[in-house]
């Protein structure tokens, strides 16, 4: 059965190209029309503003090119303040042997406004993404489901589990940290193969659009091209993605 990659990117303020929303799916041909409509609706009714530019891309992909991965196990840490939340991340990174969590988190100030993620050398704190303004986009991934109901409402959680699962399976990536760029969404996470997808209920104050993603890289520079190829090009379907946190 042929599969299709469907991608949507929405922007506002013509000329300035401000990011509003983005989404992607891997679908059968029958599922395409319904999902196109749902993503269009999402772009036009978004907390970040009404999109005035919406780009759709539909590409056929060969089923044998798809890698199947089990979803990372999910856990949630309840915190009261963003400072407490940051502490949880720093501790998690320490468990991975990364002692400079504080300095890694400070790099988030550079991610605001980037469409993609920062690819950061976890030891030297050098940024490795080829386009520092745009960042690196992990793409060509979706949850594997028996029946995918189309929805115009973003499931932040399920989409993030898919992305994090792909990212931490990329060569040389040891962890991912995410703070949502949605003003209404203060839950973020830190993810690694060893401890899974660890949600943290407060990483910023409500109303703040300041978010971003950092992919933590470890190893020699020779591996960077491989990592980027996997993140940007490898098709991944993730099985066992929960619809909501337990
Ligand atoms: C986003 O899509 O803006 C990122 C959401 C990350 C947190 C998801 C969760 O609830 O676990
Ligand atoms: Mg962003
Ligand atoms: Mg890895
Ligand atoms: Mg967003």
Helix-strand blueprint:
Blueprint: E1 3-12, E2 18-28, H1 32-44, E3 53-61, E4 66-70, E5 74-77, H2 82-95, H3 101-106, E6 118-121, E7 141-144, H4 156-168, E8 173-179, E9 188-192, E10 196-200, E11 212-217, H5 224-233, E12 235-239
Bound molecules: pimelic acid and magnesium ion (3 copies).
One magnesium ion (MG) binds at residues 168-170, 173.
The major sheet is characterized as: 6 strands, mixed
Let me know the number of strands: 12
Q: How helix-rich are the residues, as a percent range?
A: 10-25%
> How would you describe the shape?
globular
What gap, in angstroms, lies between the N and C termini? 33 Å
Specify the number of helices: 5
Provide the residue-averaged pLDDT: 94
Element-by-element helix/strand order: EEHEEEHHEEHEEEEHE
Strand content: 25-35%
Radius of gyration: 17 Å
| Order of strands, widest sheet | 5-10-9-8-11-6
Low-confidence stretches: none
Assembly state: single chain
Specify the structural class. Answer: alpha/beta
Q: Which cofactor or ligand species appear?
A: pimelic acid, magnesium ion
Description of the structure:
The protein is an alpha/beta fold. Helices cover 23% and strands 30% of the residues. The chain contains 5 helices and 12 strands. The chain has helices at residues 32-44, 82-95, 101-106, 156-168, 224-233; strands at 3-12, 18-28, 53-61, 66-70, 74-77, 118-121, 141-144, 173-179, 188-192, 196-200, 212-217, 235-239. A hairpin with an 8-residue loop joins strand 8 (173-179) and strand 9 (188-192). The radius of gyration is 17 Å and the shape is globular. The structure holds pimelic acid and magnesium ion (3 copies).
């Amino acid at each position: 059965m042929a599969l299709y990659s469907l991608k949507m990117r929405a922007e506002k303020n013509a000329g300035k190209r401000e990011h509003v929303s983005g989404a992607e799916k891997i679908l059968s041909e029958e599922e395409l029309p319904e999902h196109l409509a749902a993503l269009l609706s999402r772009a036009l009714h978004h907390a970040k503003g009404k999109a005035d530019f919406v780009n759709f891309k539909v590409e056929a992909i060969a089923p044998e090119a798809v890698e199947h991965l089990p979803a990372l196990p999910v856990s949630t840490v309840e915190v009261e303040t963003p400072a407490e939340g940051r502490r949880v991340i720093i501790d998690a990174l320490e468990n991975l042997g990364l002692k400079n969590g504080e300095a890694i988190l400070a790099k988030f100030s550079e991610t605001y406004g980037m469409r993609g993620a920062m690819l950061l050398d976890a030891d030297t704190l050098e940024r490795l993404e080829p386009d520092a303004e745009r960042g690196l986009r992990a793409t060509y991934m979706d949850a594997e489901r028996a029946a995918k109901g189309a929805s115009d409402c973003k499931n932040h959680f399920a989409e993030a589990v898919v992305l994090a699962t792909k990212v931490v399976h990329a060569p040389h990536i040891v962890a991912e940290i995410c703070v949502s760029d949605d003003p209404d969404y203060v839950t973020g996470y830190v993810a690694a193969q060893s401890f899974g997808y660890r949600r943290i209920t407060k990483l910023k104050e409500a109303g703040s659009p300041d978010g971003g993603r950092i992919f933590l890289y470890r190893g020699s520079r020779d591996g960077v091209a491989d990592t980027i190829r996997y993140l940007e090009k490898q098709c991944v379907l993730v099985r066992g993605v929960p619809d909501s946190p337990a």
